[in-house]
Design goal:
Layout: H1 2-13, E1 18-21, H2 36-58, E2 64-67
Parallel strand pairs: 1-2
Helix pairs in contact: 1-2
Protein name: Putative tagatose 6-phosphate kinase
Keywords: Kinase, Transferase
GO molecular function, one term: tagatose-6-phosphate kinase activity
C-alpha cells in the first residue's frame, strides 16, 4: 500500500483531479478474495492521501473520484 500511496500522491501533485480508486485486487499476502472491509479501508486510505496532497499543493481539495471496479468503458463505448 505504500507504493499505492506514492502513486496517488504523484498523480494529485501533477494536477490530476479525477482519481480512480479500485482497491479490489489482492496484494501478495492478502486473502483472495478481499473482504469488503479491507477494500473500503484501502480506498479510504488512498482518498485521504489524495485529499491531503491536494490541500498541500493547491490549497484546496477539489478532487473527483471514481471508486470501485464498475466503471464505464474508456471512450464511452459499450
Amino acid at each position: 500500500m505504500a507504493n499505492a500511496d506514492d502513486l496517488i500522491k504523484s498523480y494529485v501533485a501533477a494536477g490530476f483531479k479525477k482519481i480512480h480508486l479500485d482497491c479490489s485486487m489482492s496484494c501478495q499476502d492478502d486473502p483472495i478474495p478481499l473482504t469488503d472491509d479491507i477494500v473500503a479501508e484501502r480506498a479510504a486510505r488512498l482518498a485521504k492521501v489524495a485529499e491531503e496532497t491536494c490541500l498541500e499543493h493547491f490549497g484546496e481539495a477539489d478532487l473527483e473520484y471514481v471508486i470501485g471496479t464498475e466503471v464505464p468503458v474508456p471512450g464511452g463505448g459499450a
